[in-house]
Amino acid sequence: MDADIDVGVRLRAVRTQSGISQRQLAKRADVANATISQIEAGKLNPTVGALKKILGGFPMSLGEFFSEGPNSERDDIFFRARDLIELSDGGVSYRQVGHDLSDKAIQLLHERYAPGAGTGRHQFTHEGEECGIVLKGELTVTVEEQSKILRAGDAYYFDSSKPHSFKNEGSIECEVISACTPPSF
Question: N or C: which end of the chain has fewer CB within 10 A?
Answer without folding.
Answer: N
